[in-house]
């Protein structure tokens, strides 16, 4: 019988049934055979003898140890050998099963292996179950066709050599309905509940400890399992989904290394208050604390990153524990972690229908009249008011603009608020901080009172310490956290601003606003000059890449931006329209967020334009997952700012007075890599071809990468420069000159 290539468990149970029925010897050939043999031996009992050849020498020791631990050492004969030849005598097996992971097994060895199968199979023997995992693109059909043809020729007595469903295979083997009943532990408590939270995709890498979860997803039409190549990508993708929608993102990793790989992406979610559920496998409960193979103390490991962190200890806990995890992640906007020991996978949940579906977000809160009047008096008494907003104003832009108009106050945004309002709105004057604008900096510096709304802007050097500040935030611990405040209002930004607007006086004097608007126009003119692709005939300036991509993007495009110099170009030269979104690793500031984040966003809507701005350093960290975009039809557009350097680190070194060292990158042709993966790609080295290349990327269906070789010596100037910074930069340049001349 020939099972579907993804029916791994069915193959094992079907083979075990054949072994029991024959009462004689069974041979399994494949990669990772040793662990499968444990399950086969468990099901066959003492009636059949199970033998195996494991192509992987690296897995032999772990498999042998597990066989001994579970009492199957005498029943299972595991050998490791390079096949062909198979290290057993001729005509020695009644049943043979074959399992190939064809990314790891050389295709040209398949015919030889099949010849060996014929040699060691007894004349009256049966070719049991053949399972082939993913094959290289374009080779699967031809390879399977050749395999089927060979089998028909040499095994005419074999059962029909066509794929048959796992359900039929199990029914023939006497396992009717057992498998589906086993899935109840995962299907109802995990899959059903997260679906009620609006989740329809899970990102992760498969592994034995989470195989029941993955298979439950496969059998449920409501869900899509997106198999990434690195668990960090899974966590970034889930985090990006949560940032975009405000709802739950979910990722999963198996025991040990798989769980560890999730951490960086989960810290990104934590730092940006994104609700994410992380599901990890764990070793069997009886082996916890014994330094078991791949065992890691996951409770300790996830204790800092998560706001909910529990390991399942019994089947009965599952419904309410999953309910708590989901509710906590959503209501407290953070990471929830559930660890599930592998021995609970085949268990059955009693009364799964008792799951609660009451998942509620935080209710809107509005301050009392007395507090509102106190803040209103401070604003009314001021001559010059500036407003600083952040992502807490996501759903409150109407109220934000209304109070700005009444106060005639310029609005400065933190980077997380960049996409709230169209860039050319008269009250919108740019950002603050190192990535901000001169207009934004002057608005804060020259105001009498600063009204901070929905922002936890962390850079104290860019906040006032000698003037009045009033702050509105939904989280009381944020009030006064970054700078002294004269008054604070705890409440939802929209309802609080609406109530406060009723108490403030309407201003007729707009001189301060007009002065800041003039500074904004001057600053924008200088930015446009920097972004003009025609200002150089031989160098592509990175400002031009951001500017052109922004102009050509759709009105509802989502930009996912990396950390590094590319952050500067995106923050300053992207003219967002108020209907677009701008995501990055804001507070963790991790490299490599852009493409994984784009994968997560694109999976939500394959028709929406999603653009990743990747630095060459960040992209090369996780570039293997461009394959994921191809495999899952995620038409992301990746623009690589290829300046051959860790540019922001270089600048930080020089500002601190250190000469540049260790920041150079020797990069491959990223466009060629994209093409090899099955996507589109183009490499740009000339300014005159930049716009055409980006147009081609945006108009081409499917994943596409633009590798732009740009100037590696571009200066990133902050809105204000301190004397110490200028001195450090000059000193570093002198040191670099001395090093280059050997003096």
UniProtKB/TrEMBL annotation:
Residues 26-125 form the Methyltransferase domain. It comes from Cladocopium goreaui. Pfam families: Methyltransf_25, TPP_enzyme_C, TPP_enzyme_M, TPP_enzyme_N. Residues 372-500 form the Thiamine pyrophosphate enzyme central domain. Residues 562-708 form the Thiamine pyrophosphate enzyme TPP-binding domain. Gene3D superfamilies: 3.40.50.970, TPP-binding domain, Vaccinia Virus protein VP39. One of its GO terms (molecular function) is magnesium ion binding. This is Pyruvate dehydrogenase [ubiquinone] (Pyruvat e oxidase) (POX) (Pyruvate:ubiquinone-8 oxidoreductase). It comes from the Eukaryota. InterPro entries: DHS-like_NAD/FAD-binding_dom, Methyltransf_25, POXB-like, SAM-dependent_MTases_sf, THDP-binding, Thiamin_PyroP_enz_cen_dom, Thiamin_PyroP_enz_TPP-bd_dom, TPP_enzyme_TPP-bd. CDD domains: AdoMet_MTases (cd02440), TPP_POX (cd02014), TPP_PYR_POX (cd07039). Residues 194-297 form the Thiamine pyrophosphate enzyme N-terminal TPP-binding domain. Belongs to the TPP enzyme family. Keywords: Pyruvate, Thiamine pyrophosphate. The keyword NAD does not apply.
